[in-house]
Amino acid sequence: MKDDNVKKQNRKMKMSRTDICVTVLLSAAGLLLVILAGILLHDYTEGLKGKAYEVKDDVKALAACLAEQEADEAERAADKLEADLAALDAGLDTPFVRFAARLGVVRTELKAVRKASAIAKTALTDLARPYIALMRELPLSALQTEDGGFDLTAAGPYLDFVEEKESELLRFSEELKEFGGMPAGMLENRLSDLKGETAVIAEIIPLSLDMTRQLLRPAVGLLRDHPLSRLETEDDGIDVGTIEYYLSFAEEKEAYVRALLEKLDALEPAGSEIGEKILRYRDRAESVLELYDATKKYQPLLRAFLGGGEDRLYVFAAQNSSEIRASGGFPGAVGTIRIRDGILKIEEFQPVNQVLSFYKTEDTVISPLESALFGSWFEAPRDADFCPDFERVAGIWASAYRAKNGEQVDGVLSATPVIIQRLLSAAGSVELSDGTVLDGSNAAKMLEYDMYYRFFGYGSDIQEGDRLSDELFAETAKKVMKKVMGQISAENIHAYLSVMKESADDRTLMLWLRDESEQELVRAAGLACSLNADPAEPETGVYFSLTNPSRMGWFLDMDPTLELLETHEDGSKTYAVHLEMKNVMTEQELRAASIYISGSGVRGTVTGFLYLFAPSGGTISEVRSSNRNLYFSPATYRDLALQYTHQIFIGPGDSVSFDYTVTTAACEQEELTFSMTPTLQEYR
Predict the structure, then answer these.
(1) For the chain, which end, N or C, has fewer CB atoms within 10 Å of the first or last residue's CB respectively?
(2) Checking DSSP bridges between strand 411-415 and strand 312-325, what pairing results, if any?
(3) Which secondary-structure segment (H or E) carries 21?
(4) Distance CA 402, CA 390 (A)
């Protein structure tokens, strides 16, 4: 019995050991199977991962082809993407992968890959292939203009495509958002860049659709109905209505563009490839907005000048800086700008005495002080620019035009030849009928020096020279205006605005409008060029007028400097001012010049009147000159203190200097600056 029990226990022990062995063996086999399955699954998923990355590269290649408008390359890239997507789907649909997914080993990763594959297939079928077909039908290269621009009016089919595909684009956007929010397990790090880009694309799609409706489509309509080519009419006029349409469109869309830029900023697209592209487009939009902002301060003035649908007439004085005057130069040629029935034309320039009355008009009252300051010159309207206050000068010219021609003018525009060089630096060169080429580096010298020695050199026929130079000036004015109007672009508008600001600052471009409310706009734009009236922005004036009819203004240097001496408790400031005037004419230039250039009497002498003005509310004192025989007289004109002399005589190669003290008004103020008669010294 006892032996039987022992045998039974031994059998149980053997069975237990057998069970344990079997269990251990099965466990080991299971572990080995899992390890083997893991190895196989890893190898398999690495292969799938390679296919997924290949698909990702295909998508990038296709996007690049679409961006470059390469239809054939895009078609091949689309075919490859389709084939690689099919291979990826086949790999995802094997029993082994389905089994692994049920085990949950790579379920998350496979789900993310399947979603990405589905999105790619939808985009390929619904968007990419139809877009390739559009590219074949209407390549963007066909929309490019000869000058490298882009004919937006012909882009209608592309806008139609965007609008027709709106539902597909919005669905695509939602799918991208869904994909971006999906976990990707072990692939999360690998897909982070892709998710970042898809998140940006998902947000940009609705913005693009809205921009098409709100901005691009209306812009195409504007360009189609009022093309910029209509800006210049066949008879060399300017269509004022076209300008008004574009001004109104810019005003209407300003708020939308600003809001669009804010939305693009909120996307924070930097750091991804698509994001960098968006930033480039954003920068372009911002540059357009900056252009609008730059023009915004001038738009009310431009609208006033264009007349708001009413006919307008302006005197246009071409002031000659070589015959320098306090407000610019002698107005040897005067034309008119006429706006009639919505068309602006610059009419023929004529000698000043054929346009303005020779004597002052009855309604032009000259005060005894003005007679003392500006001499008998001021009796003739053509010499009104001995006065440095352009508002006063322009009013006299407007009255003289009415007296001569029987028409009331709405304003006076004045410019010196320097502005031609500045405009050509932006617009490019022009060639005159005699072969002379004017550009942004030589126009001032050609018109203010070379031409005079060519037509008015020693021994020349001055009457014939007058005729030829007048013809040349008239041709120059026409060709430069045509060139400027033919070079309208965002870049050039920026440049033209810079020219206008620079020319307003140095008094080479001036404007006066008869209506006082409109003249306030001129002042706000800085084009009035009147005398200093704001103590908070103090200017000390240095103005000079030649009194010996000549072209000696070309040879005149005027170089003033300032030194702050003291800032007082009441806010006023005292400055030491030094002014150096020099006649740079050489003996060779004097010998080659006729009296038309050098003047009569003591030939080659710079002779004239000098006016030194205190800033508004300030004083000027202690004027001293290197020429002890020269004296100054004090006066007050337009509520400004000044010192003036009629005794400037500077021979060829000689100079004279002046030192004086200026004190500004007692108030909070900017630093003192100079307001000066513009010279030609930087254009030699």
Answers:
(1) N
(2) parallel
(3) helix 2-67
(4) 18
